[in-house]
Write a structure and sequence with these properties.
The protein is mostly helical. Helices cover 62% and strands 0% of the residues.
């Protein structure tokens, strides 16, 4: 029982700490809720929850990319993860135009 309580608290902490906002590293400076309001669906649409996670992942991955030294071998994995997240966004037909500067930066890395 105690383990279950600890697991729930840890899970709640991760949810609260999910990347909700831009950092100084990313070119896109919009909050996730602002990005969601620019989508073709209503915020109450079930796809909105999936979109929220995708945009949070995009911010997390972009921050890792911007903060990683260009010669670090981990950078390739971060870029691959970001590209996979972009593919998931395309599959849901999400508007990612606000990330165009960041996407262009990732593409310019030529990894």
């Amino acid at each position: 029982m105690k383990s279950l309580l600890v697991a729930c608290i840890v899970c709640a902490c991760f949810t609260v700490n999910a990347q909700q906002h831009a950092t100084q590293s990313t070119q896109c400076q919009l909050a996730v809720d602002e990005i969601l309001s620019m989508q073709s669906f209503d915020i109450d649409d079930p796809v909105s929850e999936d979109a929220r996670y995708i945009f949070q992942e995009m911010y997390e991955e972009l921050n890792l990319i911007y903060q990683t030294n260009g010669s670090d071998p981990a950078l390739v994995g971060y870029v691959d993860n970001f590209k996979e997240t972009l593919t998931r966004a395309e599959d849901l037909e999400l508007n990612v135009s606000m990330f165009q500067g960041d996407i262009s930066h990732v593409e310019s890395l030529n990894l």
